[in-house]
C-alpha cells in the first residue's frame, strides 16, 4: 500500500504527462502533467480516445497505439496544435502494460513538453545563419583561429586580401602568412592575448603565394567561454594596400610639387584659412636673399615697398573675404635693393566637401615687361601708322586696277568691292557689301549664272582655285565676256581667311583671238589645199591615165599592174579622206572591246604591202594583255599611219617594233585607272626638239609636197583623246622615235572576229541571184554600181530618189534587196527610206552606202547595215550577202571600209 501511495505521488507530481490507455485506446488515467501539456483536465480526458490529444496527428495515433498494444515500446515526437489552438511539441514514449501473468492489459504513455526547447533550438539556428551571413558578407576580412593561431574559419574577403583559398588557409596558422619583418611584434601581442591580455590592433603585412605582400590593419580579440577559458581568437582585417599606395603617392606628389615649386622662376605661395602664409618656394630666397621660411606668416610684408603695402593688403583682403580671384600689381625691393614689379595672382582652395582651405598663388616678376611697355606702345603707334599707310596704298591699288575685284567672306558674303567693279555695274557699296556675291547686279535675272558663281565660291572655299569664263551684263545692259576667278586666302595657320573674286573684261580679247583663229584657220586651209590638191591630182592622174591606157591593147601582166596602181590610188584617196574626217572629228568613233594582238596581227599583210621590202616588222604582245576600248577601224588607221611615218624615217631600211604592255593603276595627269601602252618604235633618223614639239599640229609635215598631208599624227592624237587616252612621243636625232598610245582597259571581252570576206574569184558561185533596187542620184556612181551589181549576177532597177524607190515598190514588182545611198535629194535620206521600208516591207533587206559615215550613225545604231564608199566588188558582194542572209535573223550592223570590216 505504501508503494502504491508512493507511485501515485510520483505520477501526480511528475512534470511529464503520464497517461494509461485500455487496449481499445480509451484513456484510463490522466495526471496533472498531462493537463499542463495538453490543456485538458482528467475529467475531460478520461474515457476519450487517444486521437483527440493531437488532432493534427490523429492519422498516426492508431498505428502507433497498435504497436504498443502488441508489446513494442516506441518513442516519437508529437507536434501539432492542442484544442485551445496553442502549438505544442511533445516527446512521447508508448509502452505495453502487463499483468502479473505477463499478458498485456493496456498501454502507458509518458509525454514530455519540448516546445520551448525546440523554439530555442530554432532561434539558435537562426542566429547561426545570421552570424554566418554577417561573417561572409562583412566588408572587412574575418578570420577565426584556435589558441595556437590555426585558422578555423575565414570569409571570402579575408581570402582575397591574403591571396589564398579557404582550403589552403585551414592547414596554416596566422603566423605562417605574416611577413617575417612583422612577425616578432605580432607574435608577442598574440601570445599576450592568449595569456589573458587585452585585444590588440596592429598594422602588418601578409605574404601572398607569389611573394608579394599586402598591408592590413588587424584588430584581434579573444573569445572565451562562461568559465573564462579561451576557445578561439577572431581577427578583423582591413586591407590597407590602396591607402598605403595613396599615402606614398601623396608623399611623392608633395615632393614633386615642392620640387616643381622650388624650380619655378616665379614666387609660389599658399595661405591658411586665416590668410597667413604657410608655404613659400625657394625663389623667394633667390629674389630677396632671405630664406623662404622668413616669408611665412606675415614675413612677406617686409619686402613690399612701404607705399604699396596698404593697396596690396587691401586688394588681398577684399578677394579673401569674397573667396574670389586675387589679382594685383605691386612693387618690392630685391636682394640688391632695386625696386621690381610683381604681378600677383591667387585663387581660393577648397576640399572635396567645399570647405575653404586658404589661397594658392603665384607672383611673377614683370619689371622687364613694365619697362618694355612704353617702348612697345611707341612701336605699336608707329606700326599703326604704317598699317594705315599700307591700307591707303592698298585702297589706291585696289580701286585703281582695271580688273573687277571683290573681297569675300568664306560663305560668299561681300566685304569689299573696288571702284572698277562698281563703276562697270553702276552700283554703290550699299548695293553689294554685306550681301551674297552671286546676287550682285551683273548676275541678276540669270539663275544659271548665279548657280555657276555660287558653285565656284563653294569650290574655292574648299581650297580650289577656280577660273571660268561667263557672260555678264554691265551697266546699260551691256553684255561682256568676263574672265572670272575665285581664289582662297589662308592665314598663317592654314585656316581659310577670305576669298578674292576677280573679273576681267575679255570681250575685245576674245574677239581679237577669234579673228586670229580665223586667220590661222584660213592659213591652215591654204596649206591643206595645196597639199591635198596635189595629192588628189596625183590620184586623179593615176585613174585618168589608167583609164586612158585601157583603150589600147596591152599584155595581161601590164594590164594587171595598171589595175593594181589604180586600186592603190583609190585606197590612198580613201585613206586621205578618212584622215581629214577624223581630224575634223566628223568621223564618229564606234568603240568596242579590242584584242590588240589579234587586231594588229590581222594587219600584217596590209603592213607588209604598205612598207618597203627593207623594213622588218617585229611584234611584242605578252600573254595576259588586256583588251582595250577603242574603234578598231580607227585603231588600224593610227597603226598604219605610225608605221608609214616610221618607214619614211628609215630611208635605208630598218626595224619597226610594235609592242604593248599593261599599265595598271596609272596616275598621270588627268589619266587615272588601268591602261594599255601601245608603242610603235623605229631606229630611224629621229627628230630635233623643234620638230618634235610640233608633230601633233594639223597639216605640219617635214615631207615634200605630195608625200604627206601632215594629218597622221594629228589623227593619232585626236583618236587617243576621243578614246579616253593620250599620245606621247620620245625621239632624238640619230636615236629613232617611239610613239606611245595610251588606251583605256576594257572591262568586256573582245567580240569574236568577223567572218573572213570571200575571194572575188568565188563571187559568182556564192552570190544569190536576185533583183536589187538601186537608189542613187549620181549618174556616174549609179552606172558603176549598176555595172558591179550586174557583174555579181543581180538584176538591177535604178531610181534616183527615196520617193521614186517607194513608188517602184508600190507597183508590186519583186525586189530581193534595196541598195541605197544615204545622202539624196528630195527631203528623204537613205536612212529615212530604210526606216519607212521597215514599216511597209519588214521582210525586205536594206543595205546603205555613204562616203560620210557620220550621216549614217543613226542607221548603224538601229542595226541597218552600211558599207562605206569607196567599196570594191568583194566588199559589195559580202555586204549584200550578209544583208540578205541575215535579214531573217536580226544581227548587228555591218560597217565596211574598203571591203574590210570597220
TrEMBL record:
PTM-bearing positions, type 4-aspartylphosphate: 821
Keyword line: Kinase, Phosphoprotein, Plasmid, Transferase
EC number: 2.7.13.3
The keyword DNA-binding is assigned to this record: no
Domain Histidine kinase, first and last residues per copy: 531-747
Domain of life: Bacteria
Ranges where the Response regulatory domain occurs: 771-884
Signal peptide: none
Domain PAC: 74-126, 200-252, 326-378, 466-518
Pfam family, one: HATPase_c
Reactions this protein catalyses: ATP + protein L-histidine = ADP + protein N-phospho-L-histidine
UniProt domain PAS: residue ranges: 3-72, 127-197, 253-323
Record-given protein name: histidine kinase
Organism of origin: Skermanella cutis
Amino acid at each position: 500500500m505504501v508503494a502504491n501511495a508512493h507511485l501515485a505521488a510520483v505520477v501526480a507530481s511528475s512534470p511529464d504527462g503520464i497517461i494509461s490507455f485500455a487496449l481499445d485506446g480509451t484513456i484510463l488515467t490522466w495526471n496533472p502533467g498531462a493537463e499542463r501539456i495538453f490543456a485538458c483536465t482528467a475529467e475531460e480526458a478520461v474515457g476519450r480516445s487517444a486521437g483527440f490529444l493531437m488532432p493534427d496527428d490523429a492519422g498516426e495515433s492508431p498505428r502507433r497505439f497498435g504497436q504498443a498494444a502488441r508489446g513494442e515500446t516506441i518513442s516519437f515526437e508529437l507536434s501539432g496544435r492542442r484544442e485551445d489552438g496553442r502549438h505544442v511539441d511533445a516527446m512521447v514514449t508508448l509502452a505495453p502494460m502487463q499483468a502479473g501473468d505477463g499478458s498485456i492489459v493496456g498501454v502507458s504513455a509518458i509525454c514530455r513538453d519540448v516546445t520551448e526547447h525546440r523554439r530555442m533550438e530554432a532561434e539558435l539556428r537562426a542566429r547561426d545563419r545570421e552570424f554566418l551571413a554577417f561573417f561572409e558578407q562583412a566588408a572587412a576580412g574575418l578570420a577565426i583561429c584556435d589558441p595556437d593561431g590555426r585558422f578555423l574559419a575565414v570569409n571570402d574577403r579575408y581570402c582575397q586580401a591574403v591571396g589564398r583559398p579557404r582550403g589552403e588557409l585551414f592547414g596554416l596558422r596566422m603566423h605562417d602568412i605574416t611577413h617575417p619583418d612583422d612577425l616578432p611584434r605580432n607574435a608577442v601581442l598574440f601570445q599576450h592575448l592568449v595569456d589573458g591580455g587585452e585585444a590588440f590592433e596592429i598594422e602588418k603585412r601578409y605574404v601572398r603565394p607569389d611573394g608579394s605582400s599586402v598591408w592590413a590593419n588587424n584588430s584581434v580579440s579573444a573569445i572565451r567561454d562562461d568559465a573564462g577559458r579561451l576557445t578561439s581568437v577572431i581577427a578583423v582585417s582591413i586591407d590597407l594596400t590602396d591607402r598605403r599606395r595613396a599615402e606614398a603617392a601623396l608623399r611623392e606628389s608633395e615632393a614633386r610639387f615642392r620640387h616643381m615649386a622650388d624650380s619655378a622662376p616665379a614666387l609660389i605661395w599658399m595661405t591658411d584659412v586665416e590668410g597667413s602664409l604657410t608655404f613659400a618656394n625657394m625663389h623667394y630666397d633667390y629674389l630677396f636673399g632671405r630664406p623662404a621660411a622668413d616669408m611665412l606668416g606675415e614675413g612677406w610684408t617686409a619686402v613690399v615697398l612701404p607705399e604699396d603695402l596698404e593697396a596690396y593688403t587691401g586688394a588681398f583682403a577684399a578677394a579673401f573675404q569674397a573667396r574670389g580671384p586675387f589679382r594685383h600689381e605691386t612693387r618690392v625691393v630685391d636682394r640688391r635693393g632695386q625696386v621690381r614689379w610683381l604681378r600677383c595672382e591667387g585663387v581660393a582652395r577648397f576640399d572635396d566637401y567645399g570647405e575653404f582651405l586658404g589661397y594658392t598663388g603665384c607672383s611673377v616678376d614683370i619689371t622687364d615687361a613694365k619697362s618694355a611697355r612704353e617702348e612697345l606702345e611707341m612701336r605699336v603707334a608707329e606700326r599703326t601708322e604704317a598699317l594705315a599707310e599700307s591700307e591707303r596704298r592698298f585702297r589706291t591699288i585696289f580701286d585703281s586696277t582695271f580688273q573687277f575685284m571683290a573681297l569675300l567672306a568664306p560663305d560668299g558674303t561681300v566685304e569689299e568691292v573696288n571702284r572698277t567693279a562698281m563703276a562697270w555695274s553702276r552700283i554703290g557699296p550699299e548695293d553689294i557689301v554685306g550681301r551674297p556675291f552671286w546676287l550682285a547686279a551683273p548676275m541678276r535675272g540669270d539663275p544659271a549664272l548665279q548657280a555657276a558663281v555660287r558653285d565656284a565660291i563653294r569650290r574655292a572655299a574648299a581650297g580650289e582655285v577656280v577660273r571660268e569664263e561667263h557672260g555678264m551684263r554691265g551697266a546699260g545692259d551691256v553684255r561682256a565676256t568676263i574672265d572670272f576667278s575665285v581664289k582662297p586666302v589662308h592665314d598663317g595657320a592654314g585656316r581659310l581667311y577670305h576669298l578674292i573674286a576677280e573679273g576681267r573684261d575679255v570681250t575685245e580679247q576674245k574677239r581679237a583671238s577669234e579673228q586670229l583663229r580665223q586667220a590661222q584657220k584660213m592659213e591652215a586651209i591654204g596649206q591643206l589645199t595645196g597639199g591635198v590638191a596635189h595629192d588628189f591630182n596625183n590620184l586623179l592622174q593615176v585613174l585618168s591615165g589608167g583609164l586612158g591606157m585601157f583603150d589600147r591593147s596591152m599584155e595581161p601582166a601590164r594590164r594587171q599592174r595598171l589595175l593594181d596602181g589604180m586600186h592603190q590610188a583609190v585606197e590612198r584617196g580613201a585613206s586621205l579622206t578618212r584622215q581629214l574626217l577624223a581630224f575634223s572629228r566628223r568621223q564618229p568613233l564606234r568603240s568596242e572591246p579590242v584584242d590588240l594582238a589579234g587586231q594588229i596581227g590581222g594587219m600584217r599583210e596590209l603592213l607588209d604591202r604598205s612598207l618597203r621590202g627593207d623594213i622588218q616588222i617585229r611584234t611584242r604582245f605578252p600573254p595576259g594583255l588586256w583588251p582595250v576600248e577603242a574603234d578598231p577601224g580607227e585603231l588600224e588607221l593610227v597603226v598604219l599611219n605610225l608605221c608609214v611615218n616610221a618607214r619614211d624615217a628609215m630611208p635605208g631600211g630598218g626595224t619597226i617594233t610594235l609592242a604593248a604592255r599593261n599599265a595598271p593603276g596609272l596616275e598621270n595627269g588627268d589619266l587615272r585607272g588601268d591602261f594599255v601602252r601601245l608603242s610603235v618604235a623605229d631606229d630611224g633618223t629621229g627628230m630635233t626638239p623643234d620638230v618634235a614639239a610640233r608633230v601633233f599640229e594639223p597639216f605640219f609635215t617635214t615631207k615634200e609636197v605630195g608625200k604627206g598631208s601632215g594629218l597622221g599624227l594629228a589623227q593619232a592624237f585626236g583618236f587617243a583623246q576621243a578614246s579616253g587616252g593620250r599620245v606621247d612621243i620620245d625621239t632624238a636625232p640619230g636615236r629613232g622615235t617611239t610613239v606611245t598610245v595610251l588606251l583605256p582597259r576594257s572591262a568586256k571581252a573582245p567580240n569574236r572576229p568577223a567572218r573572213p570576206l570571200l575571194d572575188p574569184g568565188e563571187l559568182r558561185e556564192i552570190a544569190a541571184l536576185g533583183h536589187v533596187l538601186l537608189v542613187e542620184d549620181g549618174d556616174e556612181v549609179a552606172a558603176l554600181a549598176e555595172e558591179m551589181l550586174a557583174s555579181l549576177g543581180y538584176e538591177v532597177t535604178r531610181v534616183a530618189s527615196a520617193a521614186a524607190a517607194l513608188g517602184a515598190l508600190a507597183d508590186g514588182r519583186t525586189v530581193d534587196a534595196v541598195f541605197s545611198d544615204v545622202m539624196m535629194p528630195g527631203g528623204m535620206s537613205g536612212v529615212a527610206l530604210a526606216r519607212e521600208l521597215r514599216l511597209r516591207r519588214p521582210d525586205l533587206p536594206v543595205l546603205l552606202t555613204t562616203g560620210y559615215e557620220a550621216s549614217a550613225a543613226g542607221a548603224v545604231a538601229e542595226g541597218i547595215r552600211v558599207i562605206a564608199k569607196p567599196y570594191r566588188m568583194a566588199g559589195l558582194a559580202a555586204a549584200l550577202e550578209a544583208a540578205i542572209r541575215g535579214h531573217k535573223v536580226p544581227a548587228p550592223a555591218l560597217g565596211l571600209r574598203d571591203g574590210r570590216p570597220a
